[in-house]
């Protein structure tokens, strides 16, 4: 299907209305201020209602599309909104039929576009989403947008596009790129088409109905992104298409990872968010590594929840907490996990890059990292590949990463420290215990000088044999290169 249908002229008029009013993330943030904005992040709208009582176009749009309350029809030029199907009018009031959210660029330095989705169902409303409900922006979509590579790409696939958040971000970063978006939910494709049309000019995107990579058989892309239906739920007959695939366990994510290499151009990337099961007696990292084939892979676990925490999270997400069915639904989730031997559910990022000599890294990073990760994720994978090939005899000079800090730990006044720690002040903010040799190299490696004279100088200064210094460097440097301390 194509998003370039008869609504486009109406949506262009709506875009003009939104931008003229300053309906952007920055504009709404300034309008609400920190107190009302913070409350709204917690799904409390009363402070935001108080902050938007002035009747300006920006206040009216914020109330209409973000807070989802009726506004006076006289406060807005409503014809374009009505013609585009975004609102309905009755009794002198306008009510939103759909939710329209502004998107901020992942760098936080500008407006990226708009996302059109179904109205948000808030906790306590007494309602649960319909099976084909199309959600708007959220923490997961923001995570993936910040993870996606910043390198220019020409041919992009968004698998499970939903309301089109990733497609909007990628179109904003890659003007003129060919964008294909798929989803099993035809309503999602319809709203994604509205999101792209409302967000800006560019090559007409392609929208295709279907699951996983089935709709694009035989095609290859520079970048595949997916915020997939990764939620692991019991097979009890109720399914929310936006979050659950219907496949058992984490099978949807495994199949997507396994199929992606055949759909990537050489050097192309696939990036997705995923849940994965921690199964009793099976190391989770080995299980995840077995999913990959034919690609460099960086799999990062950002969080783990026990089965009860996980069930509570997703029952709150679907506004089922407090309903008569809540206890039975909760019990069904726990029964399902117990039968499968599930001890926990991990959440994280998966980045693949098609490569002739694949390197796989599975790790856990729970701490805050520099955002957006997409600004340096290519360098991270380059580091893994460089580390696999490194030896001090290869003749390649090293450069210490910018922004390293050195900490020395020991009793006050001691001649030698008990520990030396190198710490990254940016990017992945790793810390590594190192010895004298690595610490000295971090202080002198600038990417210009060869290693041989540097290692000889360190041997002379420390009194170590040169062969001993070189052997130590050969042992520790590959891991430090893989971790981003050297390049």
TrEMBL record:
S-adenosyl-L-methionine keyword on record: yes
Domain of life: Bacteria
One Pfam family matching this protein: DUF7059
Cellular component, GO, one term: eRF1 methyltransferase complex
Start and end residues of each DUF7059 domain: 21-96
A biological process term (GO) from this entry: methylation
Alphabetically ordered keywords of this record: Methyltransferase, S-adenosyl-L-methionine, Transferase
GO molecular function: N-methyltransferase activity; nucleic acid binding; protein methyltransferase activity; S-adenosylmethionine-dependent methyltransferase activity
Domain Methyltransferase small: 152-275
PANTHER family named among the record's database cross-references: METHYLTRANSFERASE N6AMT1
Family of this protein: Belongs to the eukaryotic/archaeal PrmC-related family.
Name of the protein in question: Class I SAM-dependent methyltransferase
Native species: Actinomadura syzygii
């Amino acid at each position: 299907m194509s998003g370039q249908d008869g609504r486009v002229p109406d949506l262009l008029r709506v875009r003009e209305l939104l931008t003229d009013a300053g309906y952007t993330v920055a504009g709404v943030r300034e309008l609400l201020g920190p107190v009302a904005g913070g409350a709204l992040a917690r799904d409390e709208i009363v402070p935001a209602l108080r902050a938007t009582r002035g009747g300006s176009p920006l206040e009216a749009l914020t109330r209409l599309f973000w807070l989802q309350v009726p506004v006076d029809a006289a406060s807005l030029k409503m014809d374009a909104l009505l013609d585009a199907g975004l609102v309905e009018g009755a009794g002198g009031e306008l009510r939103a039929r759909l939710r329209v959210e502004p998107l901020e660029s992942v760098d936080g330095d500008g407006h990226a576009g708009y996302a059109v989705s179904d109205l948000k169902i808030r906790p306590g409303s007494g309602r649960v989403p319909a099976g084909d409900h199309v959600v708007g922006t959220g923490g997961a979509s923001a995570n993936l947008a910040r993870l996606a590579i910043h390198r220019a790409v020409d041919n992009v696939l968004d698998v499970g596009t939903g309301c089109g958040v990733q497609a909007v971000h990628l179109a904003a970063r890659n003007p003129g790129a060919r964008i294909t978006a798929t989803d099993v939910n035809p309503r999602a494709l319809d709203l994604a088409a509205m999101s792209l049309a409302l967000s800006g000019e560019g090559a007409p995107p392609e929208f295709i109905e279907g699951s996983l990579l089935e709709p694009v058989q035989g095609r290859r892309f520079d970048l595949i992104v997916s915020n997939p239906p990764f939620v692991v739920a019991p097979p009890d007959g109720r399914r929310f298409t936006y979050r659950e695939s219907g496949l058992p366990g984490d099978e949807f994510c495994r199949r997507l990872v396994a199929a992606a290499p055949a759909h990537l151009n050489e050097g192309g990337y696939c990036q997705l968010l995923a849940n994965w099961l921690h199964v009793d007696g099976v190391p989770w990292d080995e299980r995840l590594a077995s999913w990959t084939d034919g690609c460099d892979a960086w799999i990062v676990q950002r969080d783990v929840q026990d089965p009860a925490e996980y069930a509570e999270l997703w029952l709150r997400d679907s506004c089922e907490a407090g309903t008569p069915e809540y206890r039975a639904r909760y019990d069904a989730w726990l029964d399902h996990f117990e039968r499968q031997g599930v001890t926990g559910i991990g959440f994280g990022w998966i980045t693949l890059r098609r490569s002739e000599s694949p390197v796989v890294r599975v790790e856990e990073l729970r701490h805050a990292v520099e955002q957006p990760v997409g600004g340096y994720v290519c360098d991270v994978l380059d580091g893994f590949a460089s580390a696999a090939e490194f030896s001090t005899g290869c003749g390649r000079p090293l450069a210490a990463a910018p922004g390293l800090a050195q900490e020395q730990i020991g009793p006050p006044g001691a001649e030698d420290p008990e520990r030396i720690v190198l710490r990254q002040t940016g990017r992945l903010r790793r810390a590594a215990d190192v010895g004298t040799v690595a610490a000295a190299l971090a202080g002198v490696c600038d990417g210009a000088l060869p290693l041989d004279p540097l290692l000889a100088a360190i041997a002379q200064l420390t009194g170590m044999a040169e062969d001993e210094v070189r052997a130590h460097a050969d042992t520790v440097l590959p891991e430090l290169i893989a971790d981003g301390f050297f390049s």
